[in-house]
Amino acid sequence: MPRRVASDDAGIREAAACIRGGGVAAFPTETVYGLGASTLAPDALRKVYELKGRPSDNPLIAHVVDAVDAKMLVAEWDRRCNRLAAAFWPGPLTLILPRGDMVPDEAVAGLSSIAVRSPMHPVARSLLYAVDGPVSAPSANRSGHVSPTTAEHVMADFAGVEDLLVLEGGRAGFGIESTVLDLTGEVPVIRRPGSVTADALRRIVGTVEVAHAVQQGASPGTSLIHYAPDVPATMVPTVRLAVFLASMREPAAVLAMPGTEVREPHVVIRMQPDAEGYARMLYAGLREAEATGLSQIVIEEPSGRDGVWLAVLDRLRRATVR
Ligand code: TXA
Ligand code: MG
């Protein structure tokens, strides 16, 4: 088992010493837990890829305390960056910018750009201050599996790993990964939707485009099959749900909206009616569905289509594509 440590002073110091010494430590952020290593330590970064089973062409996000530290990792930082950082940092927004000279290939999968974000979770911030340098971290799940929103989720995904420290930090408040905004071109492009919405970004920088999942070669990790639970999951609109469930040969775990009737032998997992609440419990809900041991997951398609619902639907589509 990995070793789980409390996020008191001693725990933070230990995790920071681990990362400073070229090790890997998992830590909480406001979005999902991350699997962190020093951005400047190629061997440690290779270990992150190895632990996750992550394809080596999928770049990492560098976590920094603030814009001052972000600037050290990038080759260009313009007025748009200043405005975005002032509006959304610390918080769940990742910026993709031309990569600076000090960044090793291993931190960005050899790309000429780097993704940077300043997390707002107090434990993540304490850790970054203690490390006193940038920490690159993908979500702390097995590659391709559901992202972790609690320390238990991380422990479960890396159950066989001894040489890993997991910093405890409770349940992630946002629950889905950060919005990834590509600023390497003239017009900012959302590569991955998240809790910072397109409209919120437009209020700060004007025109913002949204990339479609299928054309996302520019953000390798956003390929369609991703974030998937271990058993097949199907998304079904509310109007067809009752008939769909009645026609199933085996019982399923059903992620349903409040008020939707789900009859036995199916097992219901109740979701929240609002987008933020749904996002917060989405990955925990999918993992709970897996834990029922049933052979299928059915997800009642939420009817919301704006704001954070776009990010929720993006994750649900990925979880249900096979
Ligand atoms: O909320 C989050 O962003 C979490 C927490 C831990 O910070 N991290 C996270 O990391 O979700 P990961 O590795 O699971 O997803 C990072 C995404 C991937 O889709 C990756 O392809 C994209 O960001 N990305 C990273 N660097 C990039 C770059 N230089 N150019 C384009 N896309 C990049
Ligand atoms: Mg991930």
Enumerate how many helices there are, as a single number: 10
Q: Specify the CATH homologous superfamily of the largest domain.
A: DHBP synthase
Helix amount: 25-40%
Bound molecules: threonylcarbamoyladenylate, magnesium ion
**What is the arithmetic mean of pLDDT?**
95
Shape: globular
Number of strands: 15
What class do helices, strands and sheet pairing give?
A: alpha/beta
* Radius of gyration from the alpha-carbon trace, in angstroms: 19 Å
- Stretches where pLDDT is under 50 for at least 5 consecutive residues are none
Q: What is the straight-line distance between the termini?
A: 30 Å
> What's the arrangement of strands in the largest beta sheet?
1-8-2-3-7-4-6-5-9-10-11
Question: What fold name stands as the CATH topology of the largest domain?
Answer: DHBP synthase
CATH architectural category of the largest domain: Alpha-Beta Complex
Quote the beta fraction.
Answer: 15-25%
Count of structural domains: 2
Q: H/E element string?
A: EHEEHEHHEEHEHEEEHEEHEEHEH
